[in-house]
Amino acid sequence: MGVQRVLLALLSFSSTFIGSTTGVESCKGTFILEGPWFAKVNLVATSDPPNAHYVMSSNFDNFPKGPEYKQMLDILGDGIFNSDLDLWKNQRIAAQGFMRHHLFHQFLLRTSRDKVEMGLMSIIDHATKHGLVINLKDIFQRFTFDSVCILVTGYDPSSLSLELPQVFFSKSVHDSEQGIFYRHVRPRSFTKLQKWLNIGQEGKYKKALKVVDDVLAKYIYETKRRRLFNVDEVKNLVYLHEVLCEALRLYPPVPFNHKKPVKPDILSSGHPVHPKTKILFIVYSMGRIESIWGEDCYEFKPERWINERGEIKHEPSYKFLSFGAGPRICLGKETSFIQMKPVASALIYNYRIHVMEETPVVSIVSAVLHTENGLMTRISKRWE
User: Fold this and answer.
1) How far is residue 77's CA from residue 98's CA, in Å, rounded to a whole number?
2) Are 44 and 277 in contact (CB under 8 A)?
């Protein structure tokens, strides 16, 4: 029953991934799923840390992204997330040098701080003054959208303003994320038919891709000069760092990932795999399994990330898989914390946030973890 529960959870729109977690745990972290020949379903699904370490680190060369990954995520082109071998290595070396440079960190923190002060807090203050219910999910997505556009193109689209203008780009990104998810769980013949007929998820994906291309081209054209700033202000927020790690453990931005071996192999769990086998890492479940995180695995407990000296406790990347592991571990891990800390500290220090019970927080199936109903909140000032 565990395998069926996981499969239903992955395919169900209303699923919160809890079904997949229960199913994976009942199978001791790993199970095999084979479908009829015409569906080409040959899957090993796992939330087992030793398997993650074996595939993503110790035997990395036998598990590249492969051509199928590029077909499913064609929106990313030949970039670092899709490429393999020398193309990937060269891009990673270049990106690593850029993202580790102190001037980049200064620019990133300054951009985030400016956007918090002039965008985020203006909207929050307006909501508290007038007693408005606001969708924090939408607000945070606008913050991320503006920040990424400034970072990548140098242009600020100012979607995080009091007017909350409609952002077609964000909807297009959301549509593309859902399209990517269904490419993971549907036969390729089905998605090719949808693409040829320009219908369903593939039809929406095609339209979304055009919007993304058009918007990015416009922003690049309207590029402005970047600015720099000091990174030291957020280095000492140790407990906040642990809070963010705990949130990422329970709610990983990318709830699943997959690999395929180049040649036959045997996973650490003893499961044999071959070049036609897809290894699906259920990252969402990995953060909620008792044998990995203990009896309190479902509890939000930032203290689990603090060692005896009051410092940040390191967990192996193949156990805390929110940023991937091995040679392909996310280059943006540190920069993501640099961006999140100014947002979280400004909101927590200045405001009280009450989540509206009328709109429950429910996960939605997508290549990126989202909430189906947004995050509706009522906010008041903390110091009045």
Assistant:
1) 20
2) yes
Contact 46, 279 (CB under 8 A): yes
| Residue stretches of the annotated binding site for heme | 330
How many other β-carbons are positioned within 10 Å of the β-carbon of residue 171? 13
**What are the tens digits of pLDDT across the range 120-173?**
999 999 999 999 999 999 999 899 989 988 887 778 888 999 999 987 777 787
Average pLDDT across the chain, whole number? 84
pLDDT score, position 211: 83
Cα 13 to chain centroid distance, Å, stands at 18
**Single-letter residue type at 263:** K
165 CA to centre of own chain: 25
Q: Which two tokens stand for residue 261?
A: 């071996």
The tokens of 164 are what? 């909350």
User: Would you say 216 and 42 are in contact if contact means Cβ atoms under 8 Å apart?
Assistant: no
Residue 39 has pLDDT above 70, yes or no: no
- 2-381 belongs to CATH 1.10.630.10: yes
Is 0.85 topped by the overall pTM? no
Name the residue with higher pLDDT: 375 or 39. 375
111, HSE (Cβ side, Cα atoms, 13 Å): 31
Query: Which residues sit opposite 379 in a β-bridge?
Result: 353
Number of neighbours of residue 123 by Cβ within 10 angstroms: 20
| pLDDT tens, position by position, 54-99 | 999 999 999 998 887 777 777 777 888 888 888 888 888 888 888 8
Count of residues making up the chain: 384
Half-sphere exposure of 58 (CA within 13 A, CB side): 11
> Residues forming the annotated binding site?
330
Sign of the Cα torsion 9, 10, 16, 18 reads positive
Interior/surface letters 308-333, b for 16+ CB within 10 angstroms, e for the rest: eeeeeeebebbbbbbbbbbebebbee
